[in-house]
Amino acid sequence: MRLNVYTAAFLLLLLKEQIYYIIGIMLKKSILVVDNEAVVSLHIRNLLQGWGYKVAATVSTGVDAIAIVEQIPPDLILMDINIEGDIDGIETSKRIREKYNIPVIYLTAYADEAILRRVERTNPYGYILKPFHDSALYAAIKIALYNNMVEKDHVFQYQIQSVLNTILRISLEPISLTEQMDRILETIITLPWLKFESKGAIFLVKENAEVLQLKVQKGFSEELLIACNEVPFGKCLCGRAAAISKTVFADCIDDRHDITFDKMTQHGHFCVPIKLEGKLLGIFNLYLKDGHKKAHIEEEFLTAVSNTLAGIIARRGAEEALVKLKIQHELILNSAGEGIYGLNNNGMISFLNPAAAKMLGWTPAELLGKHNHSIIHHNYPDFSNCSDSDCHIHKTFKDGVVYRVNDKVFWRKDGSSFPVEYVSTPIFDENQQLVGAVVVFNDTSERKEADEKQIRLLEELKQTNYMLKLSTEKIIQSEKMAALGQLVSGVAHEINTPIGSSVLSASHLQEKTREVYQLFHGNKLSKSKIEQYFDVALEDSDIIVKNLLRSSAMVKSFKMVSGDQTSHQRRIFKLKEYVEEIIMSLKPMIKKTPHKIHIHCDREIELDNYPGAIAQIITNLIMNSFIHAFDEDFKGTINISIIENFNNVVLMFKDNGKGIPEGTLGKIFDPFFTTNRKGGNSGLGLHIVYNIVAQTLKGDIYCESVEGDGTTFVITIPKEVS
Q1: What's the confidence (pLDDT) of residue 188?
Q2: First to last CA, the chain
């Protein structure tokens, strides 16, 4: 089995090399040798093959040369003038050049004046006298092939430019875009120098969809019209070209042709994207004869056509958009609630919308052509005259700037006036010459009444808010003092235990010391008594030291937290250490419950902020969880997690309690909102927390909760408060 695999791989490699060899032969330039001397022909054949050229044939007569050219035209002909047959080399070259335009190099021993004049009339690409040097022939062939290539390229470029000029002329004709595309398609598929079938189509991308829609076609059957009316991106060759936005070529019907039907004739395709600035507008599809070989110059030409088409489609689209925009502007102008009218540079009304006519009490026909100032804006509210020089609308014509004016009046047809605010904007033409102005105005009567009413209401609200603020500050201060009093009471109670133990141990030690002292002065002190005394002294001293250290730590925490809460002083502190001190100060309250509090924080996180505010936040959140989140006999857990996030720290306070109902969640930070009013709660705890975070710490707080699945408060504060 392994031998078979290796054998197959070897044969495949040989086949691949053979294919490359055949392709190389096909791509070689073909040269026809016409000479009546067999020795010379053989020498030239050997030279050409050695230089990598393909020899189409070696013949000795003009008739044979023409016959070879008619079958497979070569790229170059090496022509002897004196050849066998009825026509010489010059006449043979003339006939071939007239019909096939193949370049010719003469190889001859003749150089007289008459022959040279005949040679000139055939426009040869070279003239080499025999005998010749091989290098001279090599150079002449290279130059001839290059010049012929350049000449063909110039001709092709001219033809391309001629076609593109025709397309541009079509684009300027006053016909629809569909008619323009139809004529452009017909121009392309009927070009004699392109080997295309007289069949093709132009698809445009359907608006807001990845679908190609057939717009124009030539030569499509009924079946093809139905099948190709709409082609999704990625389907068949046109859809694939649209999906990848690149040209797709096929020389036959292959597995990429998703759209097929009975009696479909064999064919190939060029499917070229129509793109503008990277945006796909459509696909340009041309049918090819079956087996047509792709030519790079054809693809370049079709790309140039598609680019021209893209410009035409975009221009017509812009023109149609302008028409729609004009209609839309008219609709907007007529539908606008504001009064809008235009003036020419003489102050005459040139247009106005229905709203303006209605507010002024005139019909549009009555106002058009009338002088704005004398009809609409002639007097002040007290009927005193308003001159042109005082009118900001007319100042627009002089200054060429926008004026926004309040507290003016316009006059109606019936002689009454109404308060307005207006904007007068100058209109400039394409040469930046001032040609008029547009005025947009509003009747402010109702708004003035509403403004006066609002001022009265705001004054009443201001007074109410002031009284509410005083009440709130009193309640908040009361809450703070109550919390601090509770903290003092709890810490005092907690300190009593270690202090009491220390007093008992100190009294016991004092008593034993007196006994030893008396024994010592009575000369009754024994070794055993001393050992007993040392045991008691060590034990009591240890108890005293431990209890005093415990009390000292509690007092330190109490002083730190209580001092920060009352002073609101800003300082630099380690966050985890401070949070631990807060929890320690709350220990008298926490130890009475089954709840656990865990702290997760890097000890190196440092803040330059207000520690007292943080203490008050954590205390209030813990109290909130104990009161609202944990039911009686429930063993609750609180996790306080703190992480750094660039220049901020994020504190997440999460409990595993009963959560907050969805209808309540949006109100928890509102002042005086509580679900436990009967339990004596004021509803200010979370409101205080919100204010401290937002105002004192310059941070943000939000709450996440699912009823029955706990509550999480996420607080983000800067590491260094500004």
Answers
A1: 82
A2: 80
Provide CB contacts within 8 A for 294, sequence distance 6+. Answer: 249, 251
Answer whether 597's CB lies under 8 Å from 622's CB.
Answer: yes
Q: Are 721 and 606 in contact (CB under 8 A)?
A: no
Q: How many CB atoms lie within 10 A of CB 316?
A: 16
DSSP secondary structure of 630-671: --TT---EEEEEEEEETTEEEEEEEE-S----HHHHTTTTST
Between 327 and 408, whose confidence is greater? 408
Sorted by sequence, the CB contacts under 8 Å of residue 370 that are 6+ apart come out as 348, 349
Per-residue pLDDT, averaged over 38-53, amounts to 90
Rounded alpha-carbon distances, angstroms, from residue 162 to 100, 185, 305, 306, 501 = 22, 15, 12, 15, 112
**What are the structure tokens assigned to 425, written together?**
């904007």
Specify the range with the lowest mean pLDDT, choosing from 110-119, 492-501, 527-536, 709-718. Answer: 492-501
Taking the C-alpha atoms of residue 716 and residue 700, their distance in angstroms, rounded to an integer, is 5
Q: Which of 615, 614, 647 minimizes the C-alpha distance to 718? A: 647
The residue among 357, 358, 326, 329 whose CA lies nearest residue 341 is 357
- Within 10 angstroms of residue 269's Cβ, the number of other Cβ atoms is 24
Assess whether the previous peptide bond of 131 is cis (omega < 30° from 0).
yes
Contact between 68 and 56 (Cβ < 8 Å): yes
Each residue of 252-265: b (16+ CB within 10 Å) or e? Answer: ebeeeeebeeeeee
Indicate the SS3 state at residue 336.
Answer: coil
| Token duo for residue 439 | 């005025």
Residue 640: pLDDT over 90: yes
Please answer whether residues 357 and 338 qualify as being in contact, where contact means their C-beta atoms are separated by less than 8 angstroms: no
Residue 9 has pLDDT above 50, yes or no: no
Q: What is the Cα–Cα distance from 120 to 564, expressed in whole angstroms? A: 110
Which pLDDT score, from 0 to 100, does residue 22 have? 36
By three-state DSSP, how is residue 254 classified?
A: coil
Which amino acid, one-letter code, is at 13?
A: L
Half-sphere exposure of 601 (CA within 13 A, CB side): 23
Measuring CA to CA, how many Å separate 68 from each of 20, 55, 72, 89?
Answer: 27, 12, 6, 15
- The pLDDT mean for the chain works out to 82
- Better-predicted residue by pLDDT, 323 or 393: 393
Q: Are 570 and 521 in contact (CB under 8 A)?
A: no
* Whether residue 227 has pLDDT greater than 80: yes
